[in-house]
Write a structure and sequence with these properties.
Helices cover 55% and strands 13% of the residues. The strands form two sheets. The chain has a six-stranded parallel sheet with strand order 3-2-1-4-5-6, with helices on both faces. Strands 7-8-9 form a three-stranded mixed sheet. Strand 8, helix 7 and strand 9 form a beta-alpha-beta unit. Helix 4 runs parallel beside helix 5. The chain is globular, with a radius of gyration of 20 Å. The model has no long low-confidence stretch (mean pLDDT 98).
Length: 286
């Protein structure tokens, strides 16, 4: 089956590169930035001129775009070109309710639809070792599983349409609170003369050890916030978590505190930086 990929940003480019390397048939690609398309063409992908071009050429259409409105634009644009033979996989992190609406539109057009957001960041994407949460029927899940394994080593079906996104938002909400706990305690330790390296080593001796600190200690120590996952993208996910909570009348005080940190980071112009740059907000550096 021919695969089309729309959205070649920090994550999408790495994911598409794995598909090109591992898939035996043609892979089509499109992005609003021509240089992103050409980078994938050099890897073996076939350039498309727009989203419709991808939809017309591909049997499986994968999207990886930033926000709900971007996913809505793509699927509303390609809707007239979908047929019963086509499968759509949206790997973006968007509102579950928006995704369910898009799934219904796609199914009404005769095609099939899965939400399949990813966890981990660009280094894992480059290695094809992402985690992927899928919202789809069991039948569709089994069809697309080999393709998802091009990009991820841990793939789990969470339930029907929208459930993959609910899990992704819960995951990132937990990451954001772990991160904020690291930020606050690291700032406290630093104020009392303990270095980042010593702090991380000491934390590893006890129950507070966590993947976030283990993977970001050098980044925070050097203040090299080269983007693997941006502040603005995590801020979006924090907002989605609070929206989900509000729908169920849940008062998530920890996530509200995280939201304040992210809002401050955006106000300070850190949106394009790696999300670990929030440490500078908590530490009073920004």
């Amino acid at each position: 089956m021919k695969i089309g990929f729309i959205g070649l940003g920090i994550m999408g480019s790495a994911m598409c590169e794995n598909i090109v390397a591992k898939h035996s048939e043609e892979v089509f690609c499109y992005d609003h930035h021509e240089e992103n398309i050409q980078a994938l063409v050099k890897k073996g992908a076939i350039a498309c001129k727009n989203e419709i071009d991808v939809a017309q050429n591909a049997d499986i259409i994968i999207t990886m775009v930033p926000k709900s409105e971007h996913s809505a634009f793509v699927y509303n644009t390609i809707l007239p070109f979908l047929t019963p033979q086509k499968i759509c996989i949206d790997m973006s992190t968007i509102s579950p309710s928006v995704s369910v609406e898009l799934a219904q539109k796609v199914k009404n057009a005769g095609a099939d639809f899965a939400d399949a957001p990813v966890v981990k960041s660009r280094p894992a994407a480059l290695l094809g070792k992402l985690g992927i949460y899928v919202g789809a029927s069991e039948e569709l899940f089994q069809k697309i599983l080999p393709i998802l394994h091009y990009m991820g080593e841990n793939v789990i079906r969470m339930g029907e349409n929208g459930s993959g996104l609910v899990m992704k938002i819960c995951h990132n909400a937990l990451v954001s609170q772990i991160q904020n706990g690291v930020n606050e305690t690291l700032a406290l330790a630093g104020a009392h003369g303990i270095s980042v390296e010593t702090f991380a080593k000491a934390i590893s001796y006890g129950g507070a050890q966590n993947f976030y600190l283990d993977s970001k200690k050098e980044v925070i120590s050097s203040r090299d916030f080269t983007t693997a996952f941006s502040v603005e993208n995590m801020a979006k996910d924090v907002g989605l978590a609070l929206d989900l909570a509000a729908q169920k009348n849940l008062n998530l005080l920890g996530e509200k505190a995280v939201s304040q940190v992210y809002n401050a980071a955006l106000e300070k112009g850190l949106g394009k930086k790696d999300f670990s740059a929030t440490f500078t907000i908590v530490n009073g550096e920004a």
